[in-house]
Amino acid sequence: MTRRHVLLLLITLCLTTTFHSDCTAQAKTGERIRPLIACFGDSLTAGHGVTTGQTYPDYLQHDLDSRGYAYRVVNKGIDGNTTKDGVDRLKDVLSLHPQIVLVEFGGNDGLRGLPISVTRQNLDLIVSTLLKAGTKVVLAGITLPPNYGPDYIQQFNETYAMLARKYKLPLIPFLLKNVYGTPGSMQADGIHATEKGNQQVALNVLQALTPLLKK
User: Quick one: how many helices (H) and strands (E) in the chain?
Assistant: First the structure.
């Protein structure tokens, strides 16, 4: 190999490396500038009982991509979280600078029989803090098994509608609509969605999100 050939080879390698680095940097930059949607909640969001990639935020990302919406979905759900835990995690979520936050809390408060006033106060603080930070909020409601009594359940359910009215929020009255009671859509515990169920949950969320999205 002549000296000229060696020089040409070295130049080619340098150009290829530079091109690859530029493409990688552009890809990372593109990922950073995609508006972020944070799914903020408890085990329903975290995907309790399903494998990685089968949570509703995962399916929501797929649904957004397939419809041409350039958003990035982040799963900020943690098993067992109450509304108080949500309040405690607000700084973590806000540090991501999300454009939209889907708030899904309250189920664990209800299952533990916590005072409705406490749940409402915490949810109000979560929503108002996000709004003050300039974040758009979508509120997701849930309900309780009938053994908790009609009075408690009614007050619990009204919490989400009251908060949505107060802050003029898009509301998903029941996150598990077309999931609960649908064969193959709920796990054996009767609380958490299966992979099939999470696909429907993602569609429920997408319907509420769509008016807030831009292409």
Answer: 9, 5
CA distances to 21, 38, 74, 137, 168 from 96, in Å: 26, 8, 9, 15, 24
Which pLDDT value is given to residue 31?
A: 52
Query: Which positions are annotated as active-site residues?
Result: 43, 189, 192
Q: Please name which of 64, 56, 52, 38 lies closest in space to residue 196, comparing C-alpha atoms.
A: 56
User: What is the Cα–Cα distance from 85 to 41, expressed in whole angstroms?
Assistant: 9
For the cut 90, the answer to whether the pLDDT of residue 6 exceeds it is no
SS (H, E, C) 31-71: HHHCCEEEEEECHHHHCCCCCCCCCHHHHHHHHHHHCCCCC
Which residue matches tokens 């859509």?
185
Q: Decide: pTM greater than 0.90.
A: no
Q: From CA 89, how far away is CA 174, in angstroms rounded?
A: 23
Coil/strand/helix, residue 93: helix
User: How far is 179 from 79, CA to CA, in rounded Å?
Assistant: 20
The whole-chain average pLDDT of the chain stands at 90
Quote the CA–CA distance of 190 and 6 in Å, as a whole number.
69
